[in-house]
Design goal:
about 240 residues
């Protein structure tokens, strides 16, 4: 059986195994995306066109990051607690393929919320988008980075710790990352820190992909995001392969 067929079968197995919970997870992350756009609008107040566009183009990034860094660790932690992840590793399939199958599944789960967030933003703020040809590639890289990092955290730490970390990340992502609001509103030390973290580059890539006529992504953001993507994927693969 070749690698591609094995990966495809693993994706089917994961989707069928989670058939009862996947609709609920898609619903939750979709509501989160819509809530971010409408809720932040209430919090900020009257938005001028520039602020509305910034918020609307940041919400899809929040959706992708939430699925990868919050939902992925929770599901992997649950698999560890019920023992199904240990059973999977007894199958005659390279462990790295489990990671590939899960990353594809989590990316697919994130897509409905991302699309709906964009549609709600268009309706709520009457903005105009100018999608870039490389938007899909940016979405895949952001989703891959977030899900790989979340997968590594859930595999490396005990289930309780992984779930606590994922809960903490909810507040960090929503309130302390320059995704839905400009970094200039943060203190200087936090702006400097975000130059080395993946959140701001993630927001910049998706924002410039959705509204290419208004935003441009810098070379620094591309380099930082690429670095985090490689580190996250390699780290998740190493943790998974070395896990007994």
């Amino acid at each position: 059986m070749n690698t591609l067929r094995q990966t495809g079968l693993l994706i089917q197995w994961q989707l069928r195994r989670g058939a009862s919970s996947l609709p609920l997870m898609i619903l939750v992350q979709t509501l989160l995306a819509v809530g971010t756009i409408i809720g932040f609008g209430f919090l900020i107040g009257d938005l001028d066109p520039v602020a509305a566009l910034f918020l609307a183009t940041g919400a899809p990034t929040v959706t992708l990051v939430m699925v990868g860094l919050v939902m992925t660790p929770q599901m992997v932690a649950e698999e560890k607690r019920e023992g199904s992840i240990d059973w999977k590793h007894t199958l005659p399939v390279p462990r790295i393929l489990f990671l590939a199958a899960d990353l594809v599944m989590w990316t697919v789960i994130a897509l409905p919320g991302l699309v709906l967030a964009i549609l709600v933003a268009l309706w709520r703020y009457d903005i105009e988008l100018s999608p870039s040809p490389w938007l899909l590639a940016g979405v895949i890289v952001v989703s891959l980075t977030a899900a790989s990092f979340g997968y590594a955290v859930a595999t490396l730490f005990p289930p309780v710790v992984a779930m606590l970390v994922s809960q903490l990340l909810v507040f960090v992502i929503l309130l302390f990352t320059p995704i839905s609001f400009p970094p200039e509103r943060m203190p200087g030390w936090l702006q400097s820190l975000h130059q080395w973290l993946p959140f701001e580059p993630m927001g910049d890539v998706i924002r410039s992909g959705l509204a290419s006529s208004a935003y441009q992504v810098s070379t620094t953001s591309i380099v930082v995001l690429t670095m985090w993507c490689v580190l996250s994927v390699v780290g998740a693969g190493l943790v998974l392969v070395r896990r007994r």
